Model the fold of this input.
Amino acid sequence: MRLPERLRRRLGWLEGDKLVLTADDAGDVQVLTLHDAVRSVRGMLGPQAAGRSLADELIDERRREAERE
Done:
């Protein structure tokens, strides 16, 4: 589905942006671009993940599991 250019401009969205829709228990809906949704999640995880590479940790974990086999 394509949103009208006027609406996209007003919201600061670009044509082709992927959108994420969420609804809470009260039925309130929030629409974010995928980029903004990822940034929001990173912001929530920031303090726990600061200075860490979760990908590197996963790779290390997989290597340790392989060594045990």
